[in-house]
Amino acid sequence: MRGYEMELKKHFITTNRPYREGTVEVFQQKLKGTNIKKATLAITALGLYEAELNGNKVGDALFTPGFTYYPKHLYYQSYDVTGMLTGEDTLTVYLAQGWYCGRFTFENKVQIYGECPAVSWVLTVEDKDGIRRFCSDDPAVEAVASPYDYAGFYDGEIYNENHHQDIIQPVKFEGHIPEHFEEGTMSVRIREEMPVQAVTRRGDVTILDFGQNFAGIICIDPKKMKGNCLKLRHGEILNADGSLYTANLRKAKAETVYHKGSGIYRPRFTYMGFRYVELSGVPYEEGLLTAYAIHSDMERTGHFACENPLVDQLYRNQVWGQRSNYIEVPTDCPQRDERMGYTGDGHVFALTGAYNFHTEAFWSKFLKDIRHSQAANKEGYVAPTVPAPPGVQGIGFMSMLGWGNCVCIVPEMLYWQFGTDRYIREYYDCMKAFVDCEVRKMGGLFGKKNLWIAPSLGDWLATGRDVKYMAMHNGPVSNAFIVNDLRIMVWAATYLGKTDDAEKYAVQLEKTRDAYIKAFVKKDGTMKDDYQGAYVMALKMVLPKGELWNKVYHQLVQRLTRDGMQTGFFATEHILPLLADNGDEKLAFDLLLDERCGGWMYQVKAGATTTWERWDAIKPDGAVNETKSNGDNMVSFNHYSFGSVGKFYYQYILGIQPMEPGFAKIKIRPRIDSRIGTFSGSYKDILVAYDGKTLHISTPADTQIILPDGTVHEVGAGTYDFPVKEQ
What we know:
Blueprint: H1 5-10, E1 13-15, E2 25-32, E3 38-46, E4 48-53, E5 56-57, E6 73-80, E7 88-96, H2 98-101, E8 118-127, E9 130-135, E10 142-144, E11 148-152, E12 156-159, E13 170-172, E14 180-183, E15 188-194, E16 198-202, E17 205-220, E18 229-235, E19 255-259, E20 272-280, E21 289-296, E22 299-300, E23 302-306, H3 309-325, E24 326-327, E25 329-330, H4 343-356, E26 357-358, H5 360-374, H6 395-398, H7 406-418, H8 422-426, H9 428-441, H10 467-472, H11 475-495, H12 499-520, H13 532-542, H14 547-563, H15 572-581, H16 585-592, H17 600-605, E27 628-629, E28 632-633, H18 646-653, E29 656-658, E30 666-668, E31 679-683, E32 686-690, E33 694-699, E34 703-706, E35 712-715, E36 718-723
Parallel strand pairs: 6-14, 12-19, 30-34
Antiparallel strand pairs: 1-13, 2-7, 2-10, 3-6, 3-8, 4-5, 4-7, 8-9, 11-12, 15-21, 16-17, 17-20, 17-21, 18-19, 18-20, 22-26, 23-31, 24-25, 27-28, 29-30, 31-32, 32-33, 33-36, 34-35
Helix pairs in contact: 4-7, 4-18, 5-7, 9-11, 11-12, 11-13, 13-14, 13-15, 15-16, 15-18
């Protein structure tokens, strides 16, 4: 143990208040010092905390200490608060339930990880009298009245400074304290202000349009209130009559109720996914509400712009999808009663996201979550959502092939994108445990040796096939992931010098690949389960190049040409690159530009500002797709999985790819299509622009440049111009 870890473990407090979902406790401690030289606050919580000194927030992070697998792992933060102390000070700590024991998961459970929240802090002050420590379990710490009637991620906050709550004094926390403590290095923060774009009065309510779907919070200035209480309801779209659509929120209220208080109100323990807000209770005044977008710490590294406005908007949509869903974990969506760290959604978008932003730290944190969650089951599988609630045995592998594979896919991606083998080394045991589980479980319900044959989700939300069909015909998708995992393990074991493992996995790889071909691929290249995702996954992950590969590819091209794109979460990522790599660039751009329902441009033309969960989230007749899964509405308008098309923007339109890990050597092969028009973009210091006549390229390292006519140039670091012959 280093730093404050050991000390913090000693001082956890809570109250003995009976559990009520949404309760926020408030603790205060009086501080005195003279000629203070240095002061540091170390603090953590099982739940969420926010600390204030003399009414001023400590730090700028939101939802601290962060979301982890609480039975095993907890972050803490340390702050230099020297400049915040006057000598006569008050430390106030707000403690909410958050992910720890508040209402969470699509099952809307409470007390998932523990019965009640708890907080621990150590304030170290060095002054003229020496070094003193003020701890959370000091007898002088007292509970004070909470201004919250309720606070939770799904329902929002009810804030009332004037209500009267029974005050219960702090008590020592007797629950489980995690073994692993670590100082947090990244946080969720406010990123940018989102101005109101339009205001519409509808009877007793006002609809505010922020012009962009995003994850964020709304602050309230009581000085602008003409009345004592207001209510905000959040939504992604409007009904046909202009009212707020909220059916897709399911059991989440996504509301703020604010009773006029003494200062600017800012939500502490919730956030929302929204474009529109319905205001009631008071008239709207300019300056009353200020919205802010939030996301986890990430430096922007990628940019793209082009002449075609629809293609340009789609790029922005996927960026906003990432901003909205990289909040502590790679969430599925920011609006409804879910917002969990989905492993499948996460790895599908991981490469696109790593171009948009520097995501290494984000994934480093999530891989730790995977490790701790995985260790909680005997099988070695990785659950579909991480951090996984305790007791999810069975769902991780049995139903979710395509999701847990994140543990293999992401370390390989990080190696190529950021040039580090750290994650292959650190998480090899996790990868091995998951793949060994796959090998043990192959045979499934029906005893097919070397294959998984059993219900699973497959290519989730593919068009043309319902969820039930895909569950029963998932084999070509689920087993493609197993083949890919075995390939990664052969590579990782070889890289790390684990010869026995490499040989073992190589043997199993060939067995599973052969079994896959026998079970799912016909001699004429058609797939026995005839849907587009089956073809894509077989081509991308299973089949070696050769005659059979060519036949399967031909069948895929036929179906794409005839039907347009009809793929789901997993296969969609690979379609456009697959076509471009095999000489069908025009078809790739045809699909990118397809305005029919089932294509990206359909969403854009329908007014999307993020990517949708369903291709047909809004049907051609304008109605919302309210198809239910297990009784719940399944339509999110901010779901980044289909935003994996961003990979095509960076790697194929701009043409920027690593030839060596971490872009130590670079390949640049831009694809030009007249329908896209001129374009420009960058990844870090690599710049590519096309002005209609000339390609302008700037590169910081040795680079292979392949022009549209096939000409190859080997160049060093520098800036280059290449005239482009008319196509």
